[in-house]
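Task 17 of the worksheet. Students: predict the tertiary structure of the chain below and write it out as structure tokens. Keep your answer in the requested format; marks are given for formatting as well as content.
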Amino acid sequence: MTNRRIEILGDPSKNKQNFTIVRLNILCCRFWKLDLWDCHDMAFPFWRIYWNKNTGGLLKTNQTIYNMEPDKIYVIPPFTSFSSKYLKNHFYKKGINVSGRSMKQHDNDELTSKSSLLHLFIHFNLGVPFDNVYPGIFQIKTTPHLLENLNYLTNRLKIENTNFYATYTLKLQSIINDILSNIGTNIFEALNVDYRILKVIRHLENHIEKNPTNSELASVANMATNSFSRLFTKKMNITLHTYVMKRKVAQACDLILHSNKSIAEIACDVGFSDRHHFSKVFKAITGTTPVVYRSGKFS
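Model answer:
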């Protein structure tokens, strides 16, 4: 192989290697003292990593309850419907009710933990198809290495939680990757999705403002409508229609938080004919309204 070819390809070997492309997009990373954490039936289109420095936090999905412990990390994939609460201060039985603030450099963790929940949370996306894994809550036992990194992160966030410069961001990415790699391979079953389904998924991502019929999507996969619908439901563990609605809501969530567009404009951008129908679908999927979601009163 010539030097010129090595320069272009970046690999001196003739043996091809295939790497999975992971597009980690960090949405937020915060360390809060929570005085209230009564959140019910949340289901948002991003990953969450939770770690509490003290006991008292509780997570619930379906009929499974997790009493959160400092020696465990909790990973929640997108669109997992779950509830949370701080056992010392629990009032509300519905809605999203959060009270707290960022931990500051002058805050003493030990003293603060006596009256508040010390809660680290990281929200992020991994892109298609990683954001389409099966819902659930994954509990990971901390290792000495992970614990050291988590303590570094929470201490760093008490000093600086606005500007994440290169080294800081790389460290955070490393922590997220380390945590995800400890989950196991089962969570990423979506990586083995049939190529025809991936073709349709990519088509939907590029035409989210459209409202394609099952027949139209099946034609993208070059399959009969009923055959494709069955294949999609079997492989993705979700109906084609529900998947389309969730992807519309996912993109709407991004626009709600990162644009100045009105709710009505965003509804139109993701293919809804009116704001009322959009808000109804949004609440059915996320458990809250677009207005509350824009307020950021969730964690």
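Marker's comment: Residues 193-295 form a domain with the Arc Repressor Mutant, subunit A fold (CATH 1.10.10.60). The radius of gyration is 21 Å.
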